[in-house]
Amino acid sequence: MNLKYNGFYKHDYLTRLDLVLGRINNAENSKVIIDGNYDSKFKNIIENYLTNYQLPEGIATNLVVNDREYMVPMVTEEPSVIAACSNGSKLLSDNGGISATVISNLVDGQIILKSKTPETVEQYVTENQANLVKVANLSHPSIKNYARGALSVATRRLDGQYMSLDVTVDAGEAMGANIVNSMLEAVKSYLQDELANVEVLMAILTNDSHHALVKVKGKTSLNQLSTRSMSGKIVGQKISEASYIAKIDAVRATTHNKGIMNGIDAAAIALGNDWRALESAVHSFAVKDGRYQGLTDWQIDDEYLVGEMTIPIPIGFIGGATRVLPLAKINQEIAQVSDSEQEMMLIASVGLAQNLAALKALVTEGIQRGHMGLAVKSAVIANGATPDEVEKVVKMLAKTGQHDSETIKKVINNFRKESNKHG
Ligand SMILES: CC(C)(COP(=O)([O-])OP(=O)([O-])OC[C@H]1O[C@@H](n2cnc3c(N)ncnc32)[C@H](O)[C@@H]1OP(=O)([O-])[O-])[C@@H](O)C(=O)NCCC(=O)NCCSC(=O)C[C@@](C)(O)CC(=O)[O-]
Ligand SMILES: NC(=O)C1=CN([C@@H]2O[C@H](COP(=O)(O)OP(=O)(O)OC[C@H]3O[C@@H](n4cnc5c(N)ncnc54)[C@H](O)[C@@H]3O)[C@@H](O)[C@H]2O)C=CC1
After folding, report:
1. Could you tell me the EC number(s) of this protein (predicted)?
2. Residues 218 and 338 occupy one common structural domain
């Protein structure tokens, strides 16, 4: 195929912008938006930089973790997520709030090897452990100033000829992807020189973050869960059943975990983290027992509903986007987190609170009342209301009891007709 835009990256910014605008119907208006969000700081951060894509940031409140109250910056386009996080956090805020512990905070990488005699590779690695760890650490010497660096190497057979050399690293306050990748590539070259009969296929960190685990546990009194039509005990029982269903049905578990990630991603993005790494780690962990399962477990214990979750939170407090996104640093200050382990515990706790709010809504009034109550503003904007019209249109819409786009459009038109009539 004759690729029209091949070499796009070789043009200067204005030429690239013209090529992009050539594809848009209302190019003049679009250019105003693109120009308005342009920030030259970012042209050296990603390739073919065009402009900044905006996502709203808000603050969730009421989250208490290990006796400390947090403000949580959250970046999300989804209405009701921040309200739900504050809601779930409030329910879990008594008795010291959520108790969180970091089980371990390490990063792993793998070098994929191919050998007709895997046992000789195993023997070599066993005998040369310390040396391989040293090679890894020498590739990023500064790591030793603030962390333990590479700690161990171990072989794992994948089939008759392929094996993985797993390297475990303490990357300190960083997420560690680039640090680990440099180490792995150094070990890879070393092995290529050392082992004549071994083919080295590739070397890369793994996002299977089973060494970056956090455990969170929180409880709320059953009394607090009561609604106008249901006792707290029944609500608690139903939440517990909902978490059980997410353990036995992967179809439900997928949505259950999406609800947890509503909060986790929003906080992780606000704090400057790689959310693709988090997503892949979490979903891989959810299937670790051979079946995709919900990550939380809610049980009634006496007068309380108690929730628990163990989850991988591979994030960094230093490095990556935290170095370049000004808001990431500001958000660390808003949250008042001062190291990666505190941030891991905070983010995991957000997930637990988010899940409680979602499950409570689901087993009581359903998701639509609370969620749509807040989502309706976005729907009204999406259907053409201006910022000044939103509040009044939402009020008129509430009287119809509906929020489909046809009704919204009708209500906006009626509102405008009425406004014109009254000058
Ligand atoms: C939406 C609420 C909170 C309303 O809930 P409500 O009962 O109308 O709220 P309330 O007036 O009783 O307020 C309770 C607390 O919620 C917070 N809150 C309440 N309103 C606001 C607001 N405007 N802005 C900020 N915070 C708010 C606030 O902390 C408040 O405490 P208060 O300050 O009143 O003492 C509730 O219905 C809820 O938590 N729903 C869950 C919503 C949710 O999970 N949304 C995500 C989108 S749906 C989805 O993607 C995931 C899902 C559901 O599919 C996952 C799954 O299936 O498991
Ligand atoms: N599969 C994946 O998830 C991959 C992710 N990435 C990307 O890699 C980036 C994260 O890589 P990192 O190595 O974490 O960041 P980084 O490349 O910014 O490295 C962190 C830097 O901080 C320095 N540093 C200073 N003080 C430190 C301390 N106390 N602890 C640790 N390091 C300290 C380190 O020496 C290092 O140079 C993210 O942008 C991520 O998106 C890159 C490749 C693959």
Report:
1. 1.1.1.88
2. yes
Contact 351 CB / ligand 1 (< 6 Å): no
| Residues known to be catalytic | 78, 258, 274, 371
Q: Are 99 and 66 in contact, with CB atoms under 8 Å apart? A: yes
Helix (H) or strand (E) holding 343: helix 340-363
**CATH, residue 121:** 3.30.70.420
Residue whose CB lies within 8 A of the most ligand 2 atoms, among 175, 209, 269, 282, for a mutation test: 175
Q: What is the pLDDT of residues 319-330, one digit of tens each?
A: 999 989 999 999
Cβ atoms of 195 and 121 within 8 Å: the answer is yes
* Interface predicted TM-score (ipTM): 0.94
**Any idea of the CA torsion for 84, 87, 92, 94, to the nearest 10 degrees?**
160
Whether residues 41 and 173 fall in one domain: no
Q: Is the CB of 259 under 6 A from ligand 1?
A: yes
Domain ranges, residue 135: 107-205
Assess whether 216 and 275 both reside in one domain: yes
Domain termination residue (choose one: 348, 365, 382) = 365
Query: Domain ends where: 172, 205, 238?
Result: 205
Please state the pTM of the whole predicted model.
0.94
pLDDT at 403 over 90: no
3-state percent helix, strand, coil for the chain, nearest multiple of 5: 50, 20, 25
Per-residue pLDDT tens for 105-152?
Answer: 999 999 999 999 999 999 999 999 999 999 999 999 999 999 999 999
SS3 75: strand
Q: What is the pLDDT of residue 377?
A: 87
Count of structural domains, the chain: 4
b/e string for 243-273 if b means 16 or more Cβ within 10 A?
A: beebbeeeebbeebbebbbbbbbbbbbbbbb
Q: How many whole angstroms separate alpha carbon 277 and alpha carbon 275?
A: 5
Sign of CA dihedral 388, 390, 393, 398: negative
Q: What is the pLDDT of residues 340-377, one digit of tens each?
A: 999 999 999 999 999 999 999 999 999 888 777 788 88
